[in-house]
Amino acid sequence: MTGERIALVTTDAEFLGDEERDIEALVSALKTRRFEVETPIWYDQQVDWSGFDLAVMRSPWDYPGRYAEFMHWLDQVTQQVRVLNPPELIKWDMDKRYLQDLANAGVPCAPFEFCTRPAQVGEAIANCKAASVIVKPTVSVASANTGWFASDDPSALTLARQIFALGKTVMVQPAIEHVTRHGENALIYFNGEFAASFHKGPILTFGGGYIGGHYIEDISRGHPTAAEIAVGDQVMAAIQTIGRGRGFSSDAQTPLYARIDVAMAAGTQPQILEVEAFEPAYFADIIPEVAEIFAQAVIDRLAAR
Ligand SMILES: Nc1ncnc2c1ncn2[C@@H]1O[C@H](COP(=O)(O)OP(=O)(O)O)[C@@H](O)[C@H]1O
Ligand SMILES: [Mg+2]
């Protein structure tokens, strides 16, 4: 089951800077298993995608600024090579409105309300019945345009208007105190199985903006509870059901990889904040075993076909 050619899809070094902390470890874990591995740039016209046995989405992280081009490329590349995670799953996962599907499937999610018009935002904030709220776009990366405000702070409405001006949908949530104080746990799943966890510290500062003035991820090893992993397992089962209902390919019903962010609500039950099944970071520098588990998951996946 070795010797196949694998593409870990990324983007250019100028864009990535030192943000891509996984790819070397993943390449090395795959090469140890005798795969041929390359790290092509998604928009590189010279790449012959049909020459690969599998393309794994790794870090095409400049896609938000080149959205139409990226979506076009995604549809093209799928004609040429097996892509994991598959485009239908990626597209579902790009917009946090997928939380409605998960909630409908019985997954405990942090409460949310979506607003498509400014007039809905005040009511959504009132409906939170919370002292403070989070306002964010449903399509976002790296906490962009995400703010934490007192419920009566007019800045919450100002941010919402800015999000609408970008042509996006607004999402309002009660602020979960455990997340704003201590952060969240990220559960990494491969082929539907829990693999590893990291913890992400708080990011937002009260009244709008980021702690320390700019976006920084404070990452450490995670120690999820059994209850948190049970919720992660529930998400995996729900994705299978949702995927089947939406006519996804079987490849898309079980993500090769996913990162599930869980929050402890009021110190009681874990709730889902988001599910990242497109281009998650694994932080292999902090949880090194993740690279080996990833490589084994790729082997299992190729063998399953
Ligand atoms: N309901 C919430 N309560 C508390 N903090 C939140 C909430 N939603 C988001 N945050 C904070 O904002 C960050 C970014 O929000 P998130 O929903 O993870 O969007 P993304 O990571 O896609 O930008 C989270 O990591 C968390 O620190
Ligand atoms: Mg997040």
| Tally of separate domains | 3
CATH overall fold name of the largest domain = D-amino Acid Aminotransferase, Chain A, domain 1
Mean pLDDT across every amino acid position: 95
Return the structural class: alpha+beta
How would a textbook summarize the main sheet?
A: 5 strands, antiparallel
**Shape estimate:** globular
The CATH architecture designation of the largest domain is 2-Layer Sandwich
| Radius of gyration over C-alpha positions, nearest whole angstrom | 19 Å
Tally of contiguous helical segments: 11
Strand content: 15-25%
The residue fraction in helices comes out at 25-40%
Low-confidence stretches: none
Encode the helix/strand succession as letters.
EHHEEHEHHEHEEHEHEEEHHEEH
Strand arrangement in the largest pleated sheet = 11-10-9-12-13
Please provide the count of β strands. 13
Gap between N and C termini = 11 Å
Q: Ligands bound here?
A: adenosine-5'-diphosphate, magnesium ion
- CATH H level, superfamily name of the largest domain: ATP-grasp fold, B domain
Please identify the top-level CATH class of the largest domain: Alpha Beta
